[in-house]
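Late entry, evening session. Most of the bench is empty. Finally got around to the prediction I had been postponing all week. Sequence below, unchanged from the version circulated by S.P.
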Amino acid sequence: MDAPAPASSDAEGIARTRMRRHQFLYNLGRAARTPRGKIGLVLAGFVVLVAVIGPFVAPDSSSAFITIPYSQPSAANLLGADTLGRDVLSRVLSGGWQLILMALAATAFGVIVGGIAGVSAAYLRGKPDGFIMRTVDVILAFPQLVFALLLVSIIGPKVWIIVLAVGISHAPQVARVLRSATLDISERDFVKAVELEGVSPSRVMAREILPNLVTPLTVESGLRLTYSIVIMAGLSFLGFGIPPPAPTWGFMISENLIGLSSNIWGVAAPAILIALLTIGTNTFTDAVARVSIGIEAREQLPLLAPDIGIVAS
């Protein structure tokens, strides 16, 4: 007589997961239609487009010496030359995809590790909570850039080390945010009902709690992506990114500073693209957050009031 209960619980959990997924996509769509979201998408989309198609349309090889160092922009070299006489435009077009891919990978790693840690700490409570959160506090004692720089300087500027270091630096912030959200969700009736049926903690966290964390996960992922871009560009600027002659926007800024007065574009072009990418991702993330908590709807209510018969006070 008791056998159908787990199947019923599974069906209800799947239904809630689908509903949350639809709500997530709905919020993304609404955010993309807001003025803030449109601006963010345009800015970030432009930089991503440059990074994706840039290597295929670059006029020269990013490592070819084509003219004298710090040449001014000309018809042959639209942005002039860098410190070694390489075409700035070609290096800018070829140097973005690595930064974006590494930032995405670091963000995904940090969100996954931090999410597992935060949800587990809040749901399991007791000793696991104490151990996880004390570890988080230790990592949080280091500024993100300093922590990533420490790991990279010890092991070496390898791609996987850079991604790992930046991802680990994100995990504590994600863990704290999701722990706070999980503490609230784990006390709700639908979670308690599933627990009474004897469902294992791992399944409760995966099927009941995690689908209800889509909104904070989305917002936190956007914020972490913004920080990943800044930190990785900072590591490259300090000489701890992908080693030369690979073109990276952060290192381009560093190596061309000495010739700033001769050709500003060796510094300005990569700096502008990094700024546009960070501003775009942060602006779109802010739009998603505002839609998720209903700020956009409340701001639009006075405009809709005359049409729906509401008298504004």
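Two things to note before I forget:
The chain has a mean pLDDT of 82.
The domain at 4-308 is CATH 1.10.3720.10 (MetI-like fold).
Will write this up properly tomorrow.
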